[in-house]
Each structure stands twice: as structure tokens, then as C-alpha cells.
Amino acid sequence: MRSRPARVLLLLAAVSLLLIALDRWTPLDPLRRAGSLLYGTTASLIAAATRIGDNADRLRALERENAALRADNFTRRQTPAAITLPDRAYRGLPAHAVGFAPGTITIDIGTGDGVTRDLTVLNADGLIGRVTWAGPTTATVSLLTDRASSIGARVPSGEVGTITGHDDLLLLRLLNPQAALTPGDRVTTLGSDNHRPYIPGVPIGEVIRVDPTPGASTQTALVRPYAALTTVDLVTVVLP
Amino acid sequence: MAVVLVLLAPVAQLMVIGRWGGPELALVAVVVLARAAGTGAVLGFVAGIAADVAPPAEHTIGTGALVLTFAGYAAGQLGARRFQERSLSAFGERSAAERSAASWVGLLGVITVAATLALAGLDLDDLAWQVGWNLGAVVACAVAVVGLSRRRMRAGRAVLRRRYA
């Protein structure tokens, strides 16, 4: 005969295990959407309340215009002329970072505003990351410094490689081990198929150290991201 | 009250702790606020579900609920024993060490470390920091709770005096 608290414990533990099994089997997106609706909206409201000033509407309009111009700017001016740019206008959605967790930020726009998975997120300084999940009112952005992230990159000499997270910095691996690379070089995105998750030509960061690796099959370098990822506030989600 | 606090924990976690680093508020709240085994388990479950579904909700839903249910149960068990002992203290039959606030704080610390390890799973990278943050927060909160309930302290001292007089 078990006592009542022990029965409560077993029941709740069983429910938890059931949830874990269900989530593994078929992702419990309704629960996540409810969490996004409840907690995301609360966080957005609190964040909005803390930045209320006069002329909030005007500010909003300017933010929107700024975001669109920024998205356009990054892809038009900073892409080397050698790359044929698809003649399409990107649309930028302005968003505020309202939530922070290791490797991710939560932004205050969601599927209701047109955000879906695998969209590029940038700010005035450079690339922030990509949208990994979109809820009704908030979306989760995986930062480029996340350990699981891997981004196609290009350096000024035209060589291509990949960028992966490396603590607060980034690790650049160039496919060509003899590629010319010096500290100070600007690393930009290579762009993905169909422009998802990454559009081409967005500045990622600056090379700060080139690792001498004679005989290695790739050349590696440490890159410092241009965007200050822990103090990020206003960001732009690019709709290709 | 306790339920409201653990339901609000994810918001603060997201907006404040996520940016500057710190303890897992849900875990700290559950361990410090659990008063009895049964309600502690329920409190832990509610806090765990809230923390699981709050953005970014990247891990499997239910893991936080499972760990915090056990943490709440264990912390509540300590609370229950503490209450029983207080009622028994009239008979002066229990050892003073068992009853002391220090042992309560210490045992909460053990629960915290165990729960942190369970939550972290195999993600060992920032584990030392996380254990430190959570342990520090729980001990600080528990000490504050002990400090607030002076009556309990005085009762403890009276028992000590009676026992070693």
C-alpha cells in the first residue's frame, strides 16, 4: 500500500514520460504554440512596455522602412559583382528580440506576420542567424554561434567554406587548403538554395586569426561575428 | 502563490536570465517553495510543463516536467519531515541535527545538484556553471526562507538547549 504523495509522484512521472514519448514520436507543436502564445506574448508586451516613448507609431513605420532598406542593401551593394544576383526584391520584416536562451533568441513576430522556418535574420551589423521555429506570435532564431549551426561562407578571395559556432566566436573552414586568407578579411554568406535559410552576401564577421595547418585538408580560421549577439535588439527577418 | 510564481518563472527566465546568465528559476522556485511531498510533486510538474513549452522550447517536452516532479517531491518530503519534527519537538525525541535549518538547506542543495545534472543530460559543456548558478540560488533562497522564519529558528534553539542542558 503506497502513501498518497507517492501515488501523485508516480502518476505525474508517468504523465511526463508519456509526454516525452509523444513528443519524440510526433512533435507536440500545439503545446509549443500555446507556450509561444502565452509566454511569447507576455514577453513581447513587457518588452514593448519598456520601450514606449512618444511617437511610437512613427517609430514603428521607420523601423519597417529601415528593415526593408537594410535587407535590400546587404544583398545589392555587398555582393561581389561576379555573382549573378537574382533580380528580386527582398522584403524585410522588423522584429525585436524579446527572449534569450543559450544559442537562441526569441523574436516578437510569428506566423501571423508571415514568418516561417528557415529565414535569414540579420541586423544593422550583420548576420544574426536563422529562424528555426515559428509560433503564432513569436519565433525562435538559432544564433550563428550555436554549436549546431553551419553556414556556407565566402571570403574576399572568392574561396568558399563553412562557418560553425565556436563558443562566442566562429570557426571558418575553407575547402581549399591553399586559399589566401589574412586577419581582417570580411566573411560573407554564400547563400543557400532558393535563398533559404541564408540569402547571399550578408556580412558574417571578420577573420581574427588564421590557424597554420600545413598539410591539412582544409584551412581553418577564427572569425569574430560583426553583430553583438548577446545585446541584439532590433533585427530584420528577410523574406526571399 | 507558489503556483503563480512557478508559472511566471519562464518569462523572467526568457527576458532576464537568458541575456545575462543565471540559475534556472523554475528549478529554484520548486525546490525552495515545495512544502509537502504531494503538493511539491504537483508544483514541480506544473513548473516543468511551463518551462518546457515556453519559447524556445527546443528540447523534448516532458523532460523538465519529469525532473522537476521528482525534485519537488524530494524537496517537499524534506519539508514534510521538518513539519512533523516540529510537531514532535514537544516530545523532544529527535536529534537536533535532523531538525536544524542548516541540514534542510544542505539537503536542498543535494536535490538541486541532482536535478541540474538530470536536466543537463549529456550536454556537459556549461554544466559546472549551471550547477554553480542553481546551487547558489537555491542556497541563497533557502537561507532567506530560514532567516524569515525566525520562529522556527528559536524553536530549534530551544530544543537544542533542552537537549544539551
TrEMBL record, chain A:
Pfam family, one: MreC
Alphabetized Gene3D superfamilies for the sequence: Rod shape-determining protein MreC, domain 1, Rod shape-determining protein MreC, domain 2
Keyword annotations from UniProtKB, A to Z: Cell shape
Rod shape-determining protein MreC beta-barrel core domain span: 104-238
Signal peptide extent: none
GO cellular component: plasma membrane
Protein origin, superkingdom: Bacteria
InterPro entries: Cell/Rod_1, Cell/Rod_MreC_2, MreC, MreC_beta-barrel_core
Keyword set includes Cell division: no
One of the protein's GO biological processes: regulation of cell shape
Family: Belongs to the MreC family.
Protein name in the entry: Cell shape-determining protein MreC
Organism this protein belongs to: Acrocarpospora macrocephala
Automatic annotation (TrEMBL), chain B:
Top-level taxon of the source organism: Bacteria
Keywords: Membrane, Transmembrane, Transmembrane helix
Membrane spanning residue stretches: 25-49, 61-80, 101-121, 127-148
Protein name: Rod shape-determining protein MreD
Source species of the chain: Acrocarpospora macrocephala
